[in-house]
């Protein structure tokens, strides 16, 4: 039995689906065995050989012992259109199954070991639990926990994501991706900054709160290359591409410093720091800022300080330079005397006491004068009466 036309179709199918010809021939042989067993007078066991060059098919019937070993074997290739028709139907069913399996294996082999790589996909399906991305040759799932908070994804949007995990499951290879992982920012920045790709500039650490702000610490291995300037680009052109992909999430690039105090001061930008005191034993940084810079250093709901702490690995305590400073007011002594005296009494001083003595003496003198005048007046009256 020859299948010249079938062999041509198998070759075309192998090229279109990217499946090896041997895989298709194996599936075809299984289909022929199934078709043989359905033919009248067929043996319980059989095997099929297919010549890939000529397309000749030979069916060998087999007799097995109790242990499953082949006792005898003979050629028993059916003739007629019925066998070919049954073989074609069986081949179609088996081939569909084999193609699905082959595709799953191909996808798994293609993405296996690519955890941490960046992929681009079209949003195919969106619900409250997950988003399905079409990667072209495979599908990826973006779980709700790996989405950027409050990000609106619509069908047909083209987005970039980071491969978190590749699993080979019964239903096929499952590719799990993320848009909230900090390494997504790293991969996006590597697309825009050649110095990161060639190793001139290195990303030391990343602290991210998805959808809000990301701080990146970078260092240069070439003294002639400014790592911060290389990542930001002319007028912010490079980092702007990353911000656009993250739907407006703020990205701060900070140059790594060996002096941890100086590094923390820069990591707290855009706030201006006055002093940083480091305690290496407790891994704590006591940061002092001016009063009007305090809220900027801490950030909304403590976000700026929190990201700086994650970036540096130190606990960051921020305080104002006015904290703990007591303000003393100078009060005049006269005011203090007035406060000490009762409200309805005048304060008593030495001069006032002297005045009081003068008044008493004056009153006594006046009384004495009055007595003398009365005495004089009496004498005068007496003389008039005489």
Labels describing this entry:
N Utilization Substance Protein A, Chain:P, domain 4; 14 strands; OB fold (Dihydrolipoamide Acetyltransferase, E2P); 26% strand; alpha+beta; 386 residues; three-stranded antiparallel beta sheet; five-stranded mixed β-barrel; GMP Synthetase, Chain A, domain 3; disordered C terminus; 4 domains; rod-shaped
CATH superfamily of the largest domain: NusA, N-terminal domain
Sheet having the most strands: 5 strands, mixed, barrel
User: What proportion strand?
Assistant: 25-35%
* Alpha carbon gap, first and last residue: 191 Å
Report the uncertain regions.
Answer: 325-386
Number of separate domains: 4
Number of E-type strands: 14
Give the SSE order as H and E letters: HHEEEHEEEEEHHEEHHEHEEHHEHH
Radius of gyration: 48 Å
What would you say the CATH architecture of the largest domain is? 2-Layer Sandwich
Q: How would you classify the helix and strand content by structural class?
A: alpha+beta
The whole-number mean of residue pLDDT values reads 82
Proportion of residues in helical segments: 40-55%
Strand order of the largest sheet: 4-5-6-8-7
- Helix count? 12
General shape: rod-shaped
């Amino acid at each position: 039995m020859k299948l010249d036309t079938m062999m041509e179709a198998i070759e075309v199918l192998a090229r279109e689906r990217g499946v090896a010809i041997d895989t298709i021939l194996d599936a075809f042989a299984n289909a022929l065995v199934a078709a043989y067993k359905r033919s009248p007078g067929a043996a319980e066991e059989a095997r099929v050989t297919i010549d890939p060059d000529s397309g000749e098919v030979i069916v060998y019937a087999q007799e097995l012992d109790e242990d499953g070993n082949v006792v005898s074997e003979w050629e028993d290739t059916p003739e007629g259109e019925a066998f070919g028709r049954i073989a074609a139907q069986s081949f179609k069913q088996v081939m569909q199954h084999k193609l699905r399996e082959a595709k799953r294996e191909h996808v798994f082999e293609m993405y296996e070991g690519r955890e941490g790589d960046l992929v681009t996909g079209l949003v195919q399906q969106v619900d409250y639990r997950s988003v399905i991305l079409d990667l072209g040759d495979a599908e990826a799932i973006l779980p709700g926990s790996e989405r950027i908070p409050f990000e609106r994804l619509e069908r047909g949007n083209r987005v970039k994501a980071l491969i978190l995990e590749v699993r080979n499951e019964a239903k096929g290879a499952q590719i799990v991706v993320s848009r909230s992982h900090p390494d997504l920012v790293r991969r996006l920045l590597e697309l825009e900054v050649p110095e990161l790709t060639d190793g001139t500039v290195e990303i030391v650490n990343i602290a991210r709160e998805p959808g809000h702000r990301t701080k990146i610490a970078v260092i240069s291995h070439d003294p002639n290359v400014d790592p911060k300037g290389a990542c930001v680009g002319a007028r912010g052109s490079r980092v702007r591409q990353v911000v656009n992909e993250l739907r407006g999430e703020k990205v701060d690039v900070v140059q790594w410093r060996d002096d941890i105090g100086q590094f923390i001061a820069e990591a707290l930008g855009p706030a201006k720091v006055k002093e940083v005191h480091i305690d290496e034993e407790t891994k704590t940084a006591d940061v002092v800022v001016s009063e009007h810079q305090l809220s900027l250093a801490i950030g909304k709901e403590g976000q700026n300080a929190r990201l700086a702490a994650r970036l540096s690995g130190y606990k960051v305590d921020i305080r104002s330079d006015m904290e703990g400073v007591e303000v003393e007011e100078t009060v005049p002594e006269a005011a203090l005397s007035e406060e000490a005296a009762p409200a309805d009494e005048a304060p008593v001083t030495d001069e006032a006491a002297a005045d009081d003595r003068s008044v008493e003496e004056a009153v006594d003198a006046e009384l004495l004068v009055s007595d003398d005048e009365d005495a004089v007046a009496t004498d005068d009256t007496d003389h008039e009466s005489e």
